[in-house]
Amino acid sequence: MGNDVTVEIKNLSMSYGEKRVLKGINLEIHQGEIIGYIGPNGAGKSTTIKIILGIVHGYQGEVKILGQDISKDSKEYKRRIGYVPEIADIYDSLTAREYLTFIGELYGLTFEKADVKAEKLMELLGIKDSYNSRISSFSKGMKQKVLIISSLLHNPDILFLDEPLSGLDANSVMVVKEILFHLSKQGKTIFYSSHIMDVVEKISNRIILLNNGEVVADGSFNELKENIKEGTLEQIFNQLTGFNQYETIAEEFVSVVEEV
Ligand code: ADP
Ligand code: MG
Predict the structure, then answer these.
(1) Residue of the CA atom closest to atom 25 of ligand 1
(2) Does the keyword Nucleotide-binding apply (predicted)?
């Protein structure tokens, strides 16, 4: 393996009770890649990320981050990772300032450093006025911005984003997309999980499609297009996940809506 491999996954399987949700995943992810990790609801995207982050245990197979086996070695690698969770257990009763300085300190920053940095980043995302307000008063998009900031305060080398754009308005989506480009140019690895195809299509330089716990496609958007001969990522997605009844479903749905 080349030494620019930042995440290495071998034969990763996971079951919840009887249910196998990951069925032998193999991935080698390189420094500077923006990975779009896509797949239908329930495919196993969040589970993969939570295993890599050490939040979910009991998997089979091997996961190495920056050369360290996450089940064996020290947890030092966690300092080099940032994470935006899908469902945020953000501490609503704290102010953004309290929350962000707390997270910053967890990652080894001084209070002062975290405080200055967090406030600047909030300013750049247009929510500085709420720095001292309780997170419980924030809109979904504002909370999402706080989460994105908290994942980046310690300048991680690898960033895991699980549906990071949920709740953001169109302008903010553009800013975050651009931030991700710049981070990857700085050599950071970005692992981006989403079911929103058009964004993934635009920002990822490699797309990994997970269906039913298995990787069913892995390549650049152009490579996927050549293999599948379908236009958009959404169409490729539908074809590879065997989903072609959307018109029928929509028609039937509307006809039920019209029943009186
Ligand atoms: P995705 O993020 O791709 O939508 P998930 O990784 O969240 O998918 O879930 C994969 C499958 O595992 C789903 O069928 C989900 O219901 C199941 N699952 C996820 N977490 C748990 C859990 N803690 N206990 C039992 N089943 C789970
Ligand atoms: Mg998920």
Answers:
(1) 16
(2) yes
Kindly list the protein residues whose Cβ atom lies closer than 6 A to any atom of ligand 1: 16, 21, 39, 41-47
What's the pLDDT score for residue 199? 80
pTM greater than 0.90: no
Q: How many CB atoms lie within 10 A of CB 39?
A: 25
194 CA → ligand 2 middle, Å:
8
Residue recorded with tokens 């994470």? 83
Q: What angle do CA 238, 159, 12 make, to 5 degrees?
A: 60
Instruction: Among the bound ligands, name the one nearest to the CA of residue 17.
Output: 1
Question: Is there a contact between 95 and 135 (Cβ–Cβ < 8 Å)?
Answer: yes
User: Torsion over CA of 93, 152, 112 and 79, rounded to 10 degrees?
Assistant: 100
Span from the CA of 44 to the centroid of ligand 1 (angstroms): 6
Question: Which amino acid type is present at position 70?
Answer: I
Alpha helices in 1-79 (DSSP H): 45-52
Ligand minimally distant from the alpha carbon of residue 85: 2
pLDDT at residue number 23: 97
Atom 19 in ligand 1: which residue has the minimum CA distance? 47
Q: How far apart are CA 231 and CA 226, in angstroms?
A: 10
Token output for 76: 């030092």
Low-confidence ranges of the chain (pLDDT < 70): 1-3, 73, 229-231
Listed in sequence order, the residues at least 6 apart from 44 whose beta carbon sits closer than 8 Å to its beta carbon are 14, 21, 22, 210, 212, 213
∠ at Cα 215 (77, 194), nearest 5°?
70
| Helices and strands per DSSP (H, E), number in the chain | 9, 10
